[in-house]
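1st attempt posting a full record on here, be nice pls
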Amino acid sequence: MTAELVRGQNHPLPDTRLEVRVSAGHPMVACATCSDEQGAVRDEWLAHPGAPALPGVEVPPGVTEAPRFSVDLDAVPAAVHQVSLLLALPEGTGGPAHFGATAAPFLAVISRDGVEVASFTITGLDAETALVAFELYRRQGAWKVRAVGQGYAGGLAQLLTDQRVDRARERAAEIQGAVTPRPPRAEPAHLRTGSAADGAYGRTSGSRPNHTPAPDATVADGLTGPGGPQPGPADGQQDATADAPTVPGGPIDYAHPRRRSAPPPPPPATPAAEPGRPSRPVAGDATGWSMEERLYNQIWGMFEDLARTVAAYRSAVEFAESRMDQELDQALSDPRSRIGGAGDAARAAARAKCEQLTVQARQALDRDLAQLAAESDVVEPALPPAFARWDNPVWHAYRVPMENPMALRLGDLQLPETPELRIPFLIRLPLERGLWVDSGRAGSEAAIMLDEAQLRKLAVDCAVTHAARLLAVHPPGDFTVHVIDPAGTGATSFAPLVQSGVLAAPPATGAQGVTETLARLTQRVDLVTMAVRGGAADALPPDLDTSEQLLIVNDFPHGFDDRAVTQLRYLADEGPSVGVHLMMVADREDASAYGPVLDPLWRSLLRITPVPDDHLADPWVRHSWTYQPPAVPPGSAILRQVLDQVTAARRSWGR
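the predicted structure (as tokens):
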């Protein structure tokens, strides 16, 4: 069984001959360093595309979208105690400017017999342009792999400096120079095409938040979130003002006219607090260029505060109990004190200290929770529709937006210590991963209380609310939804989408409907991918729908043959990069006949549940967060009202 690792986790290696495969969907430079017991890297212990081989380690000789490391740990020098596998973005190739603008890299360790030993999805990256992916290290005569995922905004030079490589900047420049192609000759103006970002969709991303954002992906059902603040260019835009060539008329300014070179404005000033009291919370009390961005950063600041507050409380309680055990052991180590008044007094004193420390920890926790609850009471009513719950009054004043939102609310997150305090669970848009609404029981206590039919209906209802929100927060015609319901089991739940007319076509039923829908979307992915990669976005067919596409698949794998399953996996892997997204409503056990063939599919999707479930974990302190799915208030017609407004706006705009 594959070990799905998270940051900092290690796993024993059953074999010393390995291959590490990387998948990211964009060009990367692969390097490797060997270090001794003191962590020093010798001059000859650096493998890169210009010198791709070391004893026991080999890296790809050039830039590739799917680099592979070949490792024979028996062949590395005896002085080597650690092998670090590095990834970096090539400079000057027109690719992504930083890892935060790309899909999360996925790595898999493969043994010599082709078995996947361990895997690691490196999420939580933002302005970093180089990273340490894996470490292979000796421990007590055996080799282990550790998932690292440490990124460096300073690029390969900063990474190699941290790896203690001599002349790190010169070596980094040497590596980048070896993989950077010569600039092409300028084309005539009438033959030039737009960039991929300005091609089929013409959409641009906003600047990344300055606060550590929320978890937006799962690794072994655990959440990870992008890294810390890195002000700078907007997503996908490189700082092109550096190293500008000179011409007789002066230097050429390559800066994008809308590029923000200054940091975002500071947060609004908060009212002065009364002496001895905490300051009153204010909605949007975070940095950002817009109120939406400030609220987004504030919400994930609350998430981090709650995570660390509860972690401190749990640590304090654990320390108190450990100290009590030690004192009891010490008091009772003398047989003469095990009985009589001395032993009873020692036990009572140890328990009293434990209770005192626990009470103090709880008081600190309650104080912090009260402050967070007060902040939540202020922030929740101020949220825009993309971030708001369905019972928020903002939906009653809803108007179809003219701009794409920066994030979307998938539900709420809470911890056992604070069941009444819920933090909005936000993910960035456009979606980088598909969604999987798990209709199986999967060990959830809430799911076990329901019968199979009820759970499946709740799963479809959950998918409909997510789809409705995606439609509602995008401009008219900028988001299109397709539905595959082979057996028609979700007809009742899909009724709001069907009756409002927001679907591209009626739900596809039967094997033929599955085949036609998948073929149409697969062809779209092929066309747009070729156009964007070839720089010929203007050559797309005029009747091609260039809006974002969402495919909802219910009751998988019913109605799917082997070809349809292959097409579905293709859409899950390649679709998000060209605006085709997948939402699965399925029980994994129903597809167990396919065995490990579908493991990459499930792993590529963000798993959510139609009932509360504690399957999510944050990357900082590894809390098990309880996910609360979004729910429309019973008897409310707000969902249908919003969908009707979306339909009316599309008609008025001719979309």
